[in-house]
Task: structure prediction
Amino acid sequence: MPAPAPTAIAVGPAARWADLGPPPGGPRVLFENDAVRVVLIVLEPGRSLPVHAPQATLALAVLDGTGELLVGTTTHSVRAGDVAVVPAGVRRGLRPTGARLLALGTVTPPPTAADHAPPPEGAAWPASPAGADLAALIHREHLPLAGPIAALATLAARLPSLDAAAAAGELRAAGRFLRCELLPHAAAEERWLYPAVERVQRAVGGGTGPMLREHARIRELAAEIDRLGAGPLDAEGRAAAQHALYGLETLLRTHLDTEEAEYLPHLRRLGPAERTALLQALTGGDAGPEGGAAAPTATTDTLPTD
Result:
């Protein structure tokens, strides 16, 4: 697909135009007349839209990826589906977090060469707070679970050699671990962690649906172990308990590995306010992300994403 002429009607997949690469002068101009300029902004990792303060209003729609938008002196996280309006004369800049960021910008009136000069207050981005390493925090919470999870398979292997009373007692102990430690951990993830990850994944593709389905299966197997530990454990019950224990150990081990390898890295793309709220929730604070963005507010440097 050829790049659209600046005065032609532009219809087509944004990703196809993005794959052409940005022209030497910056964002690709899709349309321009005396009143407006429409540009496709393609920012690969390590690149940014320089900080400037043109005498032009910017309406921005994020089409793909995640990033940070500077408005005045405040940095906001943005992701696919977000929109922003920056009034004329207000300092702005845009940069990706993670992979490529694709956005559509409408600038009114079209900026001049002087509009792209560094603003008097400087072209540097504000220093970003270091913040907590949320992935490392959750990894530390996973570590104490590894031993008891491995013990489920060990118990399954030992069941045939245990008498009925001892086997039932050890099954009840396994059930207590699942009820009192593992399932509350899973519930906290569903309440706080997964909604935060889901908001990022919707922007980059994917979702937490598979992990939630595995949580449901974990609860089923935990209930089965509880049931078997509560009653007489005959030969059929031992076989069922072994099946449940082996299955649960395998599911939990692969579930945690997948979570750490494929889901926790997305936490780096959260905005500062989202990271703070999630940290408070995970460490027992009062605030936490309940899953949706706040309602938009009509101010010059507040977006609904933070």
